[in-house]
Design goal:
With about 500 residues, this protein is α+β, with helices and mostly antiparallel strands. It is about 30% helix and about 15% strand.
């Protein structure tokens, strides 16, 4: 292999890599030792701001292959024919922890996908759960603050978490999932992924239908129980990262099956719950899963920082044939995600290779920090103009989305949508098996025992009411675990 010269970043060959220039053998260092200062200045800036959420993660490249025809629902070119293969990148992550947190923490897992299509990049940015804690983006920063560190002690606080959840009953569905063993996946390979939000598909006739995306692991769902997760944090805090790397390097490529649920506009109007509420699911018996294709991850990035740390996913990045919905949380993310990327990576973050559309782009954005392309060359930076050949292709125009109202106001997010308990109750009593219910209760009790302070009893009692409203056996089991006696009269008053 041909050897390379050691150089500075500007390309100047450099010889004294280990010794600073000094006045004599024991004298002070000279300011003119440029590379010393260059190297240290670069080192001081190696850490870009970590993500506010999803700070620690693992990523891999792969492919998506279409196995079933859904062209009657969407004209998205990624799904245009059976057998079509699209390159992609996936990043898995913890939500609340910092970059140095353990992979086995009790936390939802991020499941972010970037598909490099000929109509631009499609980013599907979801979690390993089909629901979320809140349904209005105004509450998001406050929710995340409770998952981070106490401003006084700088420690994680179950008091903060349970206080917020008990005051936000819409969170119960996601809380039960988090407190089950699904809150501590065995590996990234052994968990499902969900777009979580309701999106829309539209076909070549511009007929729109609502959709939810599900990525079902073909490795099978496997989780740690609470005790195993606690032990793994001490054994190997990077266990999930290591597992993904080693598995792919052994060519045991992990796969997921993409399935979708569809709901017509007529069905949406008669659905028992708000179909655009991310704290709710669509039951499979009512809206069956439809097979679409297979996602396979088969290449670990050669440089983690270049591709995984600098990857940027944006729910606003849909492609022709895929659209948004009135989901409030989705609408909030359309603005906040690219804003976070511009803060963390710079206004030209989409020029970073992992974020680039490989099919190119044409627009009038210029300049800005870290402009590393041709910056548009000599072409005009304004429109309309008389000089370039960029045209608008009207065939990509999206169909109109009908609105249910022409009144703008601040509506209570729970108005006519305050059933926070039916679906969590079904999850606990009918979806979970006996062992899963037992582990869920154990995890809830162990964390609620850490609630402290003068508001302890108030927070516990408020959360217990939510559990009882969802399922009496859940409420009784948690009460017993906390050493609290509840009689039938009190249960009836709660219900």
């Amino acid at each position: 292999m041909k050897k390379k010269k050691l150089t500075t970043a500007s390309g100047r060959p450099y010889t004294e890599f280990e010794n600073s220039m000094t006045v004599g053998n024991r004298g002070p260092i000279l300011l003119q030792d440029y590379f010393l200062h260059e190297d240290m200045a670069h080192f001081n800036r190696e850490r870009i701001p970590e993500r506010v959420v999803h700070a620690k993660g693992a990523g891999a490249f792969g492919t998506f292959t279409v196995t079933n025809d859904i062209t009657q629902y969407t004209k998205a070119k990624i799904f245009s024919e059976i057998g079509k293969q699209t390159k992609m990148f996936a990043r898995f992550s913890q939500v609340a922890g910092e970059k140095g947190s353990a992979d086995s923490e009790r936390d939802p897992r991020g499941f972010a996908l970037k598909f490099y299509t000929e109509d631009g990049n499609w980013d599907l940015v979801g979690n390993n759960t089909p629901v979320f804690f809140i349904k209005d983006p105004k509450k998001f920063s406050h929710f995340i603050h409770t998952q981070k560190r106490d401003p006084k002690t700088n420690c994680k606080s179950w008091t903060m978490k349970w206080d917020f959840w008990s005051l936000t009953p819409e969170s119960l569905h996601q809380v039960l999932i988090l407190m089950s063993d699904r809150g501590t996946p065995l590996s990234y390979r052994n968990m499902n992924g969900y777009g979580s939000h309701t999106f829309s598909l539209f076909n070549k006739n511009n007929e729109r239908i609502w959709v939810k995306f599900h990525f079902k692991t073909l490795q099978g769902i496997k989780n740690f129980n609470g005790k195993e997760a606690d032990e793994m944090r001490g054994i190997d805090p990077d266990q999930a990262q290591r597992d993904l790397v080693e598995t792919i390097e052994k060519k045991d490529f992990p796969k997921w099956a993409l399935q979708i649920q569809l709901m017509t506009d007529e069905q949406a109007k008669t659905f028992k719950w708000n179909p655009f509420d991310i704290t709710k699911v669509w039951f499979h018996k009512d809206f069956p899963l439809i097979d679409v294709g297979i996602m396979e991850l088969n290449k670990i990035p050669e440089n983690y920082f270049r591709d995984v740390e600098q990857s940027a996913f944006n729910p606003a990045h849909v492609i022709d044939g895929i659209g948004y919905s009135p989901d409030k949380m989705l609408q909030g993310r359309l603005l906040s995600y690219p804003d976070a990327h511009r803060y963390r990576l710079g206004t030209n973050y989409e020029q970073i290779p992992v974020n680039q559309c490989p099919y190119g782009h044409s627009n009038y954005q210029r300049d800005g920090l870290m402009q590393v392309g041709d910056n548009g060359g000599a072409n005009p930076n304004y429109r309309p103009n008389s000089f370039d050949d960029i045209v608008v292709d009207e065939s990509y125009k999206e169909p109109a989305m009908p609105m249910e109202s022409n009144i703008a106001d601040w509506f209570d997010r729970n108005e006519n949508d305050d059933d926070h308990f039916t679906q969590p109750g079904i999850l606990f009593s009918k979806v979970m098996n006996d062992q899963e219910r037992k582990n869920t209760v154990s995890n809830i009790v162990s964390t609620m025992k850490d609630i402290c302070g003068e508001k302890k009893d108030e927070i516990i009692n408020r959360q217990l009411c939510h559990f009882f409203r969802a399922d009496s056996q859940l409420g009784m089991a948690v009460s017993k675990g906390l050493g609290i006696t509840i009689n039938k009269k009190e249960i009836n008053q709660i219900k």
